[in-house]
Design brief:
Largest sheet: 10 strands, antiparallel
Low-confidence stretches: none
Helix content: under 10%
Shape: globular
Order of helices and strands: EEEEEEHEEEEEEH
Strand content: over 45%
């Protein structure tokens, strides 16, 4: 039986600074195409047409209220999530590196309650997304540049060419 190589741990960087031991959770962007339904004459049902990428967002939760992070509200930053996947056959780890860039739009300190943790959350509206495994680019989306590269193929390159970009 083959055991899966599961994510065992992760670290996060904000603007190049490691928050090892201080980051609690990371919410990665959910990548999804924005689709339009089309049903032309004679078709027995609708089909989904890819109209681009839906809005992306990411979030990091920290164990303490770090002033340098709170002061990033409204600024453009990069989050880098580094996850390690390990199997059961040996002690080698695959590295998964997810890089997101965008504007920090929400800084949340949650609810104050005695005897409870009060984490800090940073929410980012993402306009750049890249996921790599062991150095191989799997997906790279650059909203501003108008590119969506999946497995080395820019799926919208010909659209940019047709528009004269």
């Amino acid at each position: 039986m083959a055991y899966p190589r599961t994510i065992r741990n992760f670290n996060a960087f904000v603007d190049g600074t490691s928050y090892f031991g201080k980051v609690l959770t990371g919410k990665l962007p959910e990548i999804k195409t924005q689709n339009s339904s089309h049903r032309g004459g004679g078709m027995d049902g609708p089909v989904s047409i890819d109209m681009g990428t839906e809005a992306l967002s990411a979030e990091l939760t920290f164990a303490e209220w770090l002033p340098e992070l709170i002061k990033m509200f409204g600024t453009r930053q990069r989050f880098v999530f580094r996850a390690a996947a390990v199997g059961e056959q040996d002690f080698t780890a695959d590295d998964h590196v997810i890089t997101v860039g965008g504007r920090i739009t929400i800084v949340s300190q949650g609810d104050l309650e005695a005897g409870k943790d009060n984490p800090l959350k940073l929410h980012m509206e993402v306009d750049y997304y890249r996921i790599q495994k062991n150095g191989e680019n799997l997906i790279e989306i650059d909203i501003e540049a108008g590119s969506r590269i999946v497995d080395g193929v820019d799926q919208v390159a010909d659209q940019r060419r047709a528009m004269g970009v």
